[in-house]
Design brief:
Blueprint lengths: L1 H16 L6 H7 L3 H4 L5 H15 E5 L15 H4 L5 H4 L2 H9 L4 H22 L2 H18 L3 H24 L27 H15 E5 L10 H43 L3 H20 L3
Antiparallel strand pairs: 1-2
C-alpha cells in the first residue's frame, strides 16, 4: 500500500510542477537488448496489448450506438496521408460504420488512432533529439575540415558520424522521459503539429484521448465506480500507449531512414571528403546536408 501511495505522490508532484516523470512503462525498456529495442513489431499486436492493459484497469459502458466524434487531434503526417485516410474520417459516421463491419468498436478505433499519433510523436521527438543535434554538429565540423583542406580530419569525423547515426535511436530510447500527461495548462480547440516539426505536449494529446474515449463511453473501475477524465490509472494507461507508440515510431523511422536516406547521405559525404577539387567537395557536402535535413524533417 505504501508503494502505491508513493507512486501516486510522485505522479502528482510531476503533474503539479511540470517536471518529467519516469513511469513504470519506461522501466520495461531498460531490460531489452539494443536489437529488441529497435525491433519493428506487428502493429495489431501493439494495439491488442494496449487493449488488454486498459481492460485490466477499467470497464467500458457504451453510450448511444450512433455517436460519432469530431476529431480535434493532430492530422496524419504528410507521408501517412498519402496511403491512409485522415483521422477525421476514421471517427465520422462513415468511418465508424466501416470499422463496425470489420468488428472494430469505437474503443479499438480510439486506441489505434492514438497509437499512430504516438508513433508520430516518437518520430518527431527523435528528429529533434540531442542525439540528432550531435550529428548535425559533427557535420558542421566536417565542412570546416573540407574548407581547411584537412582530409584526415574529415575522414575521422565521418567515421564518428557513422557511429553516432547507428547508436542514436537506441540512445534516444534509453534516455527517454515523459513530460506529465495531466496539466493545468489550457488545451487549444484543435491540435496541430508545431511548424518546426517537433512533438506536441503530452498533456494536449491526453486531452484529445480523453475527449474521444469519453465521447463514446462511460468508464468504471473494476469495482464498478465511475472514473473521471483525470483518473491517475487512466493517465498511466495513456503513458503506456505513448511509450509503446513512440518506440515503434523510432524503430520504423530508423529502418526507413537507413534504407531511403542515410546510406546515400554517407556516400555523398565520403565524396565530399575524398574529392580532390574543393568546389566539388563543397557541392557534395551541400547535397549531403540537404539529405540530412530531409531525414531530420521526415521529408525524405
Amino acid at each position: 500500500m505504501k508503494t502505491l501511495s508513493y507512486f501516486f505522490l510522485a505522479l502528482f508532484l510531476g503533474q503539479a510542477f511540470g517536471t518529467p516523470v519516469n513511469p513504470a512503462c519506461l522501466s520495461a525498456l531498460t531490460g531489452l537488448s539494443d536489437q529488441a529495442l529497435l525491433e519493428e513489431r506487428d502493429f495489431s499486436s501493439i494495439v491488442s496489448s494496449l487493449g488488454k492493459d486498459f481492460q485490466s484497469r477499467f470497464r467500458l459502458n457504451r453510450r448511444a450506438a450512433n455517436r460519432s466524434y469530431e476529431w480535434r487531434g493532430p492530422d496524419r503526417s504528410q507521408a501517412l496521408r498519402a496511403v491512409q485516410t485522415d483521422y477525421a474520417y476514421e471517427f465520422s459516421p462513415e468511418g465508424l460504420a466501416y470499422h463496425k463491419e470489420r468488428d472494430r468498436n469505437p474503443f479499438a478505433v480510439v486506441e489505434t488512432a492514438f497509437t499512430q499519433v504516438a508513433m508520430e510523436q516518437g518520430r518527431k521527438a527523435f528528429q529533434r533529439s540531442p542525439q540528432m543535434d550531435a550529428i548535425e554538429a559533427d557535420m558542421a565540423k566536417i565542412k570546416e575540415a573540407i574548407t581547411a583542406g584537412n582530409r584526415d580530419e574529415g575522414t575521422r569525423l565521418l567515421a564518428g558520424v557513422r557511429t553516432k547515426v547507428k547508436n542514436a535511436p537506441v540512445e534516444f530510447l534509453r534516455s527517454l522521459t515523459l513530460d506529465p500527461v495531466m496539466s493545468d495548462k489550457s488545451v487549444p480547440a484543435r491540435s496541430q503539429w508545431p511548424q518546426a516539426g517537433g512533438p506536441l505536449p503530452n498533456h494536449e494529446l491526453f486531452a484529445r484521448y480523453q475527449d474521444a474515449l469519453f465521447n463514446f463511453y462511460t468508464v468504471k473501475d473494476k469495482q464498478g465506480r465511475s472514473v473521471d477524465r483525470n483518473d491517475p490509472a487512466l493517465a498511466a494507461h495513456f503513458e503506456e500507449l505513448l511509450v509503446q507508440g513512440m518506440r515503434q515510431g523510432v524503430a520504423f523511422s530508423n529502418k526507413v531512414s537507413r534504407f531511403d536516406g542515410l546510406e546515400l547521405m554517407f556516400s555523398i559525404l565520403e565524396s565530399s571528403v575524398e574529392d580532390s577539387a574543393r568546389d566539388r567537395q563543397l557541392q557534395h557536402f551541400q547535397s549531403a546536408s540537404e539529405w540530412f535535413e530531409k531525414i531530420r524533417n521526415g521529408t525524405y
